[in-house]
Each structure stands twice: as structure tokens, then as C-alpha cells.
Amino acid sequence: MSIKRKIRKFFTKQVVKQPVYIPVLQSQMLEGRTALVTGGSSGIGYAIAKSFLQSGAAVIITGRNKSKLDSTVEDLKKYGSIHSIVFNISDVSNIESQFKAAVELAGSIDILVNNAGVNSGLKFGKVTEDDYDTVMDTNLKGAFFLSQVAAVYMKDAQIKGNILMVGSSSGLRPAVTPYTLSKWGIRGLTIGLAKTLAPYGIIVNGIAPGPTATPMLIKDPDKGIALNKSPVGRYSDAQEIANTAVFLVSAAGRMIVGDMVYITGGSGIITYDDIKYTM
Fold first, then answer.
1. Model confidence over 132-177: pLDDT tens digits?
2. CA angle 93, 98, 101 (to 5 degrees)
3. pLDDT for the residue numbered 5
4. Which of 119-123, 188-192, 218-222, 264-268 has the highest mean pLDDT?
5. CATH code for position 66
6. Known catalytic membership, residue 277
């Protein structure tokens, strides 16, 4: 083993073994608010839903798997008012009726978090049309039409609400996969919605996580969160993403409009390649 590899292995072990303290933002910043969080049964969506509850909001989470949603509700109900609804946002024909069902369940909704997302994992040269459509229909098309329905609802009801888009640091890198292309689209949609809706008191922003310790990227939690390619040497924790989400949709964040806040540990902002740009 070379000296360089030994040094890398040593520092990787240090990050894995030493726990990272992640403060949990708990307050009443969202008291009296109700949020709809898509893809809220795991990963970043789960962390956002939990932090919203801990900050006083009522929450409805969505997903495609009812049993997984039921399990998540059971897990989170100790933190506050939590409900779920089976909701496939890639099925545009049902978005309006499903959103109305969520409103009926909650009484009203004044926060929408467009978090649901998928990634085919295929690189350029091997992407099929089905792969492309699966990713784009969920990550961008679904988010567009759900935002449209929510915005019309908030405007008509004169709700001074928030729409929070979950982008990615991949939206800064050359777009050569459906996933990166969809996140470029989310960047543009965030700015466009912000300009369109701000006059009605509907504040739109985005968060762009970098590599985050979620089931999508961490297949073996026992290996820890070390990440040598990241400038800070580790993955982000989903709680760190959620803390920022709470602030952005709170009254304290209402003068932040149309921004995409990058929570990456420097990945993408400084340097990071998440895919190989070769065939």
C-alpha cells in the first residue's frame, strides 16, 4: 500500500470513528403552519418532516408506498400532528385531486416542500427513454404541476405561504444525466416561481443538498459518513438539510426570495465530481 493510500485510509477511519454533533433546530418558528412534504417517508424528506413537527408545524407526508407511510407516521406522531397520503406526483392527471385531498385532511396548507425525487444511476450512453421519463416526470414535471396547483390554491385563498424546492448540488455540474438535468430545471423553476408568486406573498426558495447520508447514497450505515472527495471529508447529515429548510419557510426567512441555498460541505461549490464524464 502506498503512503498516499495509507494516509487517506487513516483519516477516513478518524472520520468514521469520531461522532459528528449535529444540532437539532427545535423552536416554535412554524407554530400554526401546515406543510405538505412530498417523498417524506425517508431520507431528506423524513428529516424535514420531523424538523417541521419539532418546530410547531402540522405535517402531511406523501409517497407511493402506503405501508412505509404508515410506519413513518407511527414513528413521527410523538413529535406532533402528522398525517400521510398516497401520492404519485409523476401522475400529473391526479395531482389536483390529490392536493385537494391533502387540504381536506389538513384543513389548509401553507407550506409545500417539493422533495420527491428519483435517480436512474445510469450514465450518458446507456440512458433509455424510459429512464429519462421516470426521472424527469418525478423530479421536474411533477414538481412543476404540484407547485402550480399549490400556488393557485394559496393565491385564491390569500395564503401568505411558502414553496420550498429541493434541488441538488448536481444542478451546478454539467448536465449529462436525467438527474442532473432535472436539478438544473429545479434551479430555473425556483427563480421563476419566486418572481411570479412573490407579489402574492408566496415565498419560493430552494435548498440544494450535496452528498447526504441517506439510503439513496449510504447502502451500509456501519461504514460511517466519511467522504474523501468532499472538501469537508464527510457526507452531510439529513438533519443539517432540515435545519435550513425550517429557517427558509419560517417568518425569519421571508426576505430570502428565489435563492437556492447550497448545503454541500463545499461539494460542487468548490470541487466535486459525482459521476464519470466518460463513455
1. 999 999 999 999 999 999 999 999 999 999 999 999 999 988 999 9
2. 150
3. 54
4. 188-192
5. 3.40.50.720
6. no
Residue 53: pLDDT above 90?
yes
Place of cell 464527510: 234
Domain of 46 in residue numbering reads as 27-263
Which one, of 248, 246, 265, lies nearest residue 48 by Cα?
Answer: 246
Mean pLDDT of the chain: 90
**Structural domain includes residue 11:** no
In Å, what is the CA distance from 235 to each residue of 32, 150, 159, 171, 223?
33, 32, 36, 18, 12
| Torsion angle (degrees, nearest 10) of CA 228, 245, 189, 129 | 50
3-state secondary structure 84-120: EEECCCCCHHHHHHHHHHHHHHHCCCCEEEECCCCCC
Question: Which of 46, 179, 262, 272 does the annotation list as catalytic?
Answer: 179
226 SS3 class: strand
* pLDDT on residue 25: 66
Which three cell numbers mark 134?
421516470
Query: Cβ contacts of residue 192 below 8 Å, gap of 6+?
Result: none
Residue 6 lies in a domain: no
